[in-house]
Amino acid sequence: MAEYRTERLGHLIQEKISSLVLEGKIKDPRVSPFLSITRVSVSRDLSFADVYVSNIRAAAGIERGAEGLQSAAGFIQSQLGAAMRIRKIPRLRFHPDMSVREGFDLVKKIEGLGGHQKEESRGDSRD
To answer: Is the separation of the CB atoms in 92 and 77 below 8 Å?
Structure first.
């Protein structure tokens, strides 16, 4: 039962923080509207929430964005407190999540291999 509650709370925190980022309510210049919250992991005792941040555009922007969100954590927690009906809002810890960026790079490499194999097969058929 507790696992379901922490998972549900994580999804709710993810939605609320994503909407704050998209609406531009976080005024830190490091926080880009292209940042996305990939997942939120809430501790069993609901005291901490690890928030993972990604960015489609640049890898350097992910770390800067996580730092910007961490500096605005107090504001974000106050906004979460106003929007959610729980006794204690978890303390937020923001981490850069490179998995989305690494996934895009991997897809590009695979597509590059497919294109390279097509060129080789064309060269073999000409001989």
So the answer is: yes
